Amino acid sequence: VKAVQIHGPRDVRVADVDDPRPESETDAVVRVTSAGICGSDLHLYHGRIDIEPGFVIGHEFTGVVEEVGASVGRVQPGDRVVGAFQTACGTCWFCRRRWYHNCTSMRLFGFGMAAGNLSGAQAERVLVPNADLALLSIPDELKEAQALFVGDILTTAHQAVRNAAFRPGDTIVVIGCGPVGLLAQRCVLLQGAGVVYALDRDAARLRIAAEHGAIPLNIDEQSADDAILEATDYRGADAVIECVGAEAALNAAIQLVRRNGVVSVAGVYTDDISPFPYGDLWMKDVRLVGGLCNVLAFWEEAMALVTYGRLDPSFIVSHELPLAEAPNAYRLFDRREALKVVLHP
Ligand SMILES: [Zn+2]
Ligand SMILES: [Zn+2]
């Protein structure tokens, strides 16, 4: 089958790999119909995360179940499904508490040997271990593009917003208008915020944020500090949701939040930050929450929001390309010429 491999920084290739077959009775094989390129794939693309050359990448996918092991019960061949970016054992101490993202034998699709040696989903077919946990059926009324992000970025945004634990009417800041940031802004409004400010320096992305109800703030043109202070009687935002994954963004979040507020981090951090402004955090009594999304615990909530028509995440898709064009798709996404690329095998 054709699959997208990473061979080094900025070197992705489409090649033939072995056709996956179920290896245990809890596995399924899915014929992939859509595979997203995620912001976290860029960490691999830039060489910030080590991965074996030739590893098949991709962890955001929808498809049709082709084969299942004998004990798979929740999905059957022919079902339309969305995959989670990870799979988990379902039985360890952490899984029993529904902290699937902390599973002691957690495996991420497409992140190399260190992340559980699980081949990625930017491929014609993908092996899904523990399929009853890691696949979710797509309701008939939904299009694929509406369900695709439930397996990763929509649930990441939804959980980060949940973690911000704000009150109805609150003033919220979302740093970043990439796919996760734009979805987080929608979720913030759905969860009853009074107003959401969207920060970025990309005019086109800020326009999309504004179209979906956020107040855009271009940080190259105006001081976010001043704007948020003025909007909140000089208190600061009730919560800030950081959707970039960079030191400057986290520092800005700690600046913008009010005393006793929450900074919720959806961004992915692969490096340490030093010096970290712990003094500011302490003086303001800020709660800082973040970490890998617990997608398997929260994706049914995200799917329900989409199914009931509360939000349609497909607006973030800017490019749909054949799988064979993956090298070009990565270039477009890396240069921010594409907001979100979906590959079709
Ligand atoms: Zn991802
Ligand atoms: Zn587990």
- Beta content: 25-35%
- Main β-sheet, in a few words? 7 strands, mixed
**Distance between the first and last residues' Cα:** 10 Å
Mean pLDDT: 97
Beta strand count: 18
- Unreliable stretches: none
CA-based shape: globular
Order of helices and strands: EEEHEEEEHEEHEHHEHEHEHEHEHEHEHE
Radius of gyration: 20 Å
Question: Fraction of residues in helices?
Answer: 25-40%
* Content-based structural category: alpha/beta
Q: Tally the helices: what do you get? A: 12
**Ligand roster:** zinc ion
Indicate the topology.
Blueprint lengths: L1 E7 L2 E6 L11 E9 L2 H7 L9 E2 L4 E8 L11 E4 L2 E2 L5 H4 L10 E2 L16 E4 L2 H4 E3 L6 H4 L5 H12 L6 E5 L3 H12 L4 E6 L2 H9 L3 E4 L5 H8 L5 E6 L4 H10 E9 L12 H7 L2 E4 L4 H13 L11 E4 L3 H9 L6 E4 L1
Parallel strand pairs: 11-12, 11-14, 12-13, 14-15, 15-16, 17-18
Antiparallel strand pairs: 1-2, 1-4, 3-5, 3-9, 3-18, 5-6, 6-10, 7-8
The structure holds zinc ion (2 copies).
One zinc ion (ZN) binds next to loops.
Overall description:
Strands 3, 5, 6, 9, 10, 17 and 18 form a 7-stranded mixed β-sheet that branches. A 6-stranded parallel β-sheet has the order 13-12-11-14-15-16, sandwiched between helices. Strands 2-1-4 form a 3-stranded antiparallel β-sheet, covered by helices on one side. Helix content is 29%, strand content 26%. The protein is globular. The structure holds zinc ion (2 copies). One zinc ion binds next to α2. One zinc ion binds next to loops.
Q: Can you tag this structure with a few keywords?
A:
single chain, seven-stranded mixed β-sheet, six-stranded parallel β-sheet, alpha/beta, 345 residues
